[in-house]
Every structure is written in structure tokens, then in C-alpha cells.
Design brief:
Aminopeptidase; globular; five-stranded mixed beta sheet; alpha+beta; 149 residues; 4 helices; single chain
Length: 149
């Protein structure tokens, strides 16, 4: 299994995985939209995508979005997406992708990696905790949905 940073030319091959990831979060399938979204993020250098590849097949990915901490004056990466295809979930791809994300963040001088997942997503939470992530109990997180115009 190889973990590597995706190139723009990988967008079409990652799109089916990204589409499945979105479907897990109860979004309608949109393979064409998934590819366009990924391609735009990569072309505009708005995210970093790491892919797990085995025998020429993409079996998983994680997507990191850069942001900053004003308090520490350092970069932070939001680990926004992590997905491994069902038939490869016992191969350690998730852990390898998390390790790759950590290495990438360290190599770019980041303060930390942050992520969020649904409370009921026990498998993902267990994976994150096994890889050193700690549940944030110091801060309360809020969001505001902004209606489309």
C-alpha cells in the first residue's frame, strides 16, 4: 500500500471514493460534481489530498484544508474527510492515511490537525483515538448555516 499526495490529474479516480464518502453523510450521489469539486480544490491549491493506493487501485483518501491559528500564529490543517472503501477497511489504510496527514502537517510546520465527526460514528472515533487524537472538551464548537442566494 502506498500513501501519496494527489495531483490534479487524480481527481477523476478519487471522485468515486469522495462520492461514497458524501453518501455516507446522507448526501445525494453526484459523481460529476464530486470530480469537479476535487479538481477545483487541487487546481486552486485549496486542499491537500492524500490517497491510499494498492495494486493500482485507490482504496482511500483524506483531505486536508489549511487554515491558521491567530493565537499561536501557526498553520492548522483541518482533516475534513477520511474514507476507505469497504473492502479495504481491515488493511490499515485509515491509520496509514492519518499517519501521512500527520507527517504532512509536521513537514509544513503546522501546530495541529483538527477534525470532527458525528457522535454516532464509533468506528471513526475509535480509529482517531488509536492514532492519538483527543476529543476536545475545552471548547464548544458552533456552526451557522448560511442560506444560498
Amino acid at each position: 500500500m502506498n500513501i501519496r499526495q494527489a495531483k490534479t490529474s487524480d481527481a477523476a479516480a478519487i471522485a468515486p471514493l469522495f462520492n461514497q464518502y458524501r453518501e455516507f453523510y446522507r448526501q445525494a450521489s453526484d459523481l460529476q460534481g464530486a470530480e469537479a469539486f476535487l479538481k477545483a480544490r487541487l487546481e486552486n491549491h485549496e486542499s491537500v489530498i492524500l490517497i491510499a493506493e494498492e495494486n493500482g487501485e485507490f482504496i482511500g483518501f483524506t483531505q486536508l484544508y489549511p487554515t491558521f491559528s491567530s493565537v499561536s500564529m501557526k498553520r492548522i490543517y483541518i482533516l475534513n474527510d477520511l474514507f476507505v472503501v469497504p473492502h479495504a477497511r481491515t488493511k490499515g489504510a485509515g491509520g496509514r492515511l492519518l499517519s501521512g496527514a500527520k507527517d504532512y502537517a509536521e513537514g509544513n510546520g503546522a501546530k495541529c490537525l483538527m477534525l470532527q465527526t458525528e457522535h454516532h460514528n464509533r468506528k471513526a472515533r475509535s480509529l482517531y483515538e488509536q492514532n492519538g487524537y483527543e476529543e476536545d472538551t475545552a471548547f464548544v464548537h458552533y456552526s451557522l448555516n448560511v442560506p444560498a442566494k
